[in-house]
Design goal:
Blueprint: H1 2-62, H2 70-95, H3 101-118, H4 122-138, H5 154-171, H6 173-193, H7 200-273, H8 275-278, H9 284-311, H10 329-338, E1 342-348, H11 355-375, E2 380-387, E3 391-398, H12 412-423, E4 426-431, E5 437-444, H13 450-453
Parallel strand pairs: 1-2
Antiparallel strand pairs: 2-3, 3-5, 4-5
């Protein structure tokens, strides 16, 4: 009993000792989960926007060519409105108001065509509409029925609305306000010049309706302008983010390649410096040659460290641990298994492999496993690594899952492609015939130098 109590007390003490670590681990897990949910939400929103854009493009592609031109469609609609108003305004003023038919037909044309003219010449449209509205009101005979609205008839009111709304959408709220003020001034001038007509109700109704439509068009125009600006900013932000991610990935790859080359240069410098001590009876000419090689290696290392200082960012410090390679892939798989994933590994690699190829193979495997765990949780993952005399091949496949979250954005695949391209290899990623996702990387066992490849 005493032994059991001692064991329980030891367990409680060990639990108390490790509780801060467990709290830190739970906090880190919760933070990772929140970050993953935020990334998934951003990916889903981005996928929805892209789907809407594709549907919109498909609908537009079905239309004739002239209907996809916004300017042509606007001119056609305004022309139809102008013809319709003209066909209504002339008979109403000629029959009901007793205006001369010839003058009514002449003045109605610039009155109803002012919205169409305002698309190109807003100042001319304001002048035409104001003059035509004033003359149309003054042509009404004095013995006209007092029950009819004057100086603005119903067709003229509709023409006034379009004459104010169209310039507001086309040229901004200032042009629309000038048109509203000019038309209102024309109505007031007609009422002052013909004081015998009852014009109060018509002026109040016209000013209220046209003013309300003007305010509504200003609000809609502002909302559309803000929407266009947000869309443009989103597209610009997406392009800049893609460029930044690409540059960051290339910089990280360049840092790792620098570390590999610096290690090789250090070995060359050490071997050249110690040659006179390791090789007996070394000729003075050969010793001098080895000293020159060692000096060149030292100067190259100094220059490479200077370049490394430029590549390092403030939030990135030099890694003190050695770079991971192909031999570390089993450890990576084991770590993924401990995280709860079902991962199988098959490796058949032997012989000498270039350090840059080993780093690229490890990083590609690491990124592929991360993507599989993130986008296909609960699926079975298989890692197969093999090599022949010319190349090293790494394949990571995850089985299909019932409901995998949508995948869009990110720069993991781009980074893997950049890594393989720098070495002269290739990466293929996409769905397989069984509904899963497969990433296959083919890397040269001994990459050619940049001068040999003709790139970089």
């Amino acid at each position: 009993m005493t032994a059991k109590r001692n064991a329980r007390s030891e367990n409680r003490s060990s639990t108390r000792l490790t509780s801060p670590e467990r709290r830190a681990q739970r906090a880190q897990t919760a933070q990772d989960l929140a970050q993953r949910r935020a990334e998934d939400g951003q990916r889903r929103a981005h996928a929805k926007r892209e789907a809407r854009a594709r549907r919109r493009e498909k609908r537009l592609a079905r239309l004739p060519a002239w209907m996809r031109d916004r300017e042509i469609v606007t001119l056609v609609l305004l022309s139809v409105i102008a013809v319709t108003l003209y066909a209504v305004l002339v008979p109403v003023h000629a029959a009901e108001y007793g205006s001369p038919v010839a003058f009514t037909m002449l003045l109605a044309a610039p009155l109803v065509s002012a919205p169409l003219v305002s698309t190109r010449y807003p100042t001319l449209a304001i002048i035409l509409f104001t003059a035509s509205a004033l003359l149309m009101a003054l042509m009404v005979p004095r013995d006209v029925s007092l029950a009819l609205p004057w100086p603005w008839s119903v067709p003229m009111l509709l023409a006034f609305v379009f004459a104010v709304v169209v310039p507001t959408f086309q040229h901004g709220w200032r042009t629309g306000l000038v048109m509203l003020a000019s038309g209102t001034a024309a109505g007031l001038t007609a009422a002052l010049m013909l004081p015998g007509f009852t014009s109060g109700n018509s002026l109040i109704v016209t000013t209220s309706v046209v003013g309300g439509m003007y305010l509504l068009s200003v609000l809609i125009t502002g909302r559309l302008r803000v929407g266009h600006e947000l869309t443009r900013e989103r597209a610009l932000t997406a392009r800049e983010q893609a460029k930044r991610e690409l540059v960051e990935e290339r910089t990280r790859i360049a840092r790792e390649l620098h570390d590999v080359v610096a290690h090789s240069m250090s070995l060359i410098q050490v071997q050249a410096s110690t040659a006179r001590y390791r090789v007996p009876d070394l000729a003075p000419e050969a010793a001098a040659e080895f000293d020159d090689i060692a000096g060149t290696a030292r100067s190259s290392l100094v220059e490479m460290r200077r370049i490394l200082g430029i590549l390092r960012t403030e939030d990135h410090t030099a890694d003190l641990a050695p770079q991971r390679g192909i031999d570390d892939i089993p450890g990576l798989v084991e770590t993924t298994r401990r995280a709860g994933a079902d991962v199988g590994l098959s490796m058949a690699i032997s012989g000498d492999i270039d350090a840059a190829t080993q780093i690229a193979a490890y990083r590609i495997t690491q990124e592929s496993l991360s993507n599989a765990v993130r986008h296909a949780p609960g699926s079975t993952i298989t890692v197969v690594a093999g090599a022949d005399e010319e190349s090293v091949t790494v394949t990571v496949r995850n089985a299909p899952v019932p409901a995998a979250p949508p995948t869009s954005g990110g720069h993991g695949l781009r980074g893997m492609t950049e890594r393989s391209a720098l070495l002269g290899g290739s990466v293929e990623a996409g769905p397989d015939a069984h509904g899963g996702w497969t990433v296959t990387a083919a890397l040269p066992r001994h990459p050619a130098s940049p001068m040999q490849k003709g790139s970089l």
